[in-house]
Amino acid sequence: MDSDAVVDVRGLNHWFGSGDMKKQALFDVNLTLKRGSFTVLMGPSGSGKTTVLTLVGCLRAVQDGSVKLLGQELNGAGEGQLVALRRRLGFIFQAHNLHESLTAAQNVMMGVQVHGGVPDRTVEQAALHALGLVGLADRTSYLPGNLSGGQKQRVAVARALVSSPALVLADEPTAALDKDSAAEVVDLLKRMGQSRGTTTLLVTHDNRILDRADLILTLEDGRIIRVEERN
Fold first, then answer.
1. What is the chain's mean pLDDT, rounded?
2. Domain assignment present for 185
3. Are 168 and 20 in contact (CB under 8 A)?
4. Together in a domain, 11 and 78
5. Do residues 105 and 206 both lie within one domain?
6. Which end of the chain is more exposed for a tag (fewer CB within 10 A), N or C?
7. Nearest to 227 by CA among 9, 3, 4
8. Per the domain annotation, does 141 fall within a domain?
9. Which structural domain, as residue segments, surrounds residue 6?
10. In whole angstroms, what is the distance from residue 162 CA to residue 158 CA?
């Protein structure tokens, strides 16, 4: 494994179902994500993008092939090891998944508490700092209902980044956003890569953000058919 690689995937295959209903979803997938890089995984619906994301993110068991995350092999890893690794990751989804009854700061604080590793007395401080990073220092006490779509997604980004994860996994985070809001979210993730060394793998159909990627992988019918390095 490349010493600079946060993720190294080799010969990854995956199936869903069993017996006569068993269907292969991924075929010999190979990819490497280097520290601080911003990688976009493209492809039509049903191509296997989210399956790759969930396997790398320890949300699904690796069946065949090798997935090394932060130097640890996921194939055959125990649940305790997977849980510990998940705590070192940040997740962002198309639906921001904010709790409507909690303020922006409280939503981000939940991200600290889930990941652990931050003393209770500094949880609020960490949340406020993360919201400042995403340009929401003046919205910390707002409920989600009083935020725009782009602002809600920036709260979700702050929640993912608050514990300084080594890797952020983002599934269609810009799909419901207008062009300017989408650009803001992606630029935030790019800046985190440059300033903190945070690595991002972003699954998307959104062609508007491709010019910001360091690496573009195109997945079709469970196979990577194109690899394009931008920088």
1. 89
2. no
3. no
4. yes
5. no
6. C
7. 9
8. yes
9. 1-88+167-180+191-231
10. 6
